[in-house]
């Protein structure tokens, strides 16, 4: 953000900062971060990538108490709208749609990272399971002389259906 905007919680001038190469404006009193809406997902994804190996995917994520009320947009002064991060009630963020900015209150970023890490981590686990299953199926098919028809292969040669075709007996 080019001009200095006030913190929507304490009116202190926000300070430009960078988190893993992602630009944010932060409150000097640690009330939160102001992020351009288009940069929110890349910011969280960068933080997930940097921390996913140390996040316990089975650790429950408690909802963040929302005691701040609706924030006023630091750019246009209109009340920001509230929305649940990842369409949940675990973290409620403030957004000014016309200005394209999101306010992340203190204490909200860490659960956002953990929520995204759980989704990413579970997807990686499923991907590894699918690869292992495909490897085993391939070994079974090729060792028995069977075949996999092209209709079962999806994009990138990934199995989309399983149908064992035994070798023909002459």
Content of β-strand: 15-25%
Mean pLDDT: 83
Oligomer: single chain
Shape type:
elongated
Major sheet details: 6 strands, antiparallel
End-to-end Cα distance = 74 Å
- How many strands? 6
Secondary-structure-based class equals alpha+beta
Number of helices: 2
> Segments where pLDDT lies below 50 for 5+ residues?
none
SSE order in H/E notation? EEEHEEEH
Helix content: 25-40%
Strand order in space, largest sheet: 1-2-3-6-5-4
Using the CA coordinates, give the radius of gyration.
Answer: 23 Å
Give an account of the 3D structure.
The protein has 170 residues and is an alpha+beta fold. The chain has a domain at 15-122. The protein has two helices and six strands. It has helices spanning 37-51, 109-144; strands at residues 15-19, 22-26, 32-36, 81-84, 92-96, 101-105. The chain is elongated, with a radius of gyration of 23 Å. The N and C termini lie far apart (74 Å).
List the helices and strands and how they pair.
Elements: E1 15-19, E2 22-26, E3 32-36, H1 37-51, E4 81-84, E5 92-96, E6 101-105, H2 109-144
Antiparallel strand pairs: 1-2, 2-3, 3-6, 4-5, 5-6
Summarize, please.
The protein is of the alpha+beta class.
Please supply descriptive tags for the structure shown above.
170 residues, alpha+beta, six-stranded antiparallel beta sheet, 2 helices, 6 strands, elongated
